[in-house]
Amino acid sequence: MELPIGALLCESRGAPLCVIIQAFSEAISLIVKRGALKSYNLMRDAQYAIAKMELAGAPFDAAEHERLITQWGEQRGLAEECLRDDTGFGQVNLNSGKQISS
């Protein structure tokens, strides 16, 4: 019986395919249980673009990216606070065009 290429790669690195499948299954279950499937899918889909970018000579600085995400989150919080103060929106969902327009 001929093994699929994925199985051959796993076996060649010393990890039996059944162990990898079991670990992946457990990880996905935990991701779903924690409600993080949307984040997982986003990060999974980003891997190809990041790898392509790095292979083209533009490295991805994960530490700097994390710093920027934190900074942008803080700036967003301040901007939302100012917007609520200036407009009196209070409990309006600022991500909802329908709520803001009414």
Topology:
Blueprint: H1 5-12, H2 17-33, H3 37-55, H4 62-87, H5 97-101
Radius of gyration, taken over Cα atoms and rounded to an integer in Å: 22 Å
The total count of strands amounts to: 0
In round numbers, the mean pLDDT is 80
Uncertain residue ranges:
none
Determine the strand fraction and express it as a percent band: under 5%
Rounded to the nearest angstrom, the distance between the terminal CA atoms is 65 Å
Report on this model:
The chain is an all-alpha fold and 102 residues long. The protein folds into two domains: 1-58, no CATH class; 61-102. The chain is 74% helix and 0% strand. It has helices at residues 5-12, 17-33, 37-55, 62-87, 97-101. The model has no long low-confidence stretch (mean pLDDT 80).
Task: Kindly summarize this structure in a few lines.
The protein is an all-alpha fold. Helices cover 74% and strands 0% of the residues.
What structural keywords apply?
102 residues; 2 domains; 5 helices; mainly alpha; elongated
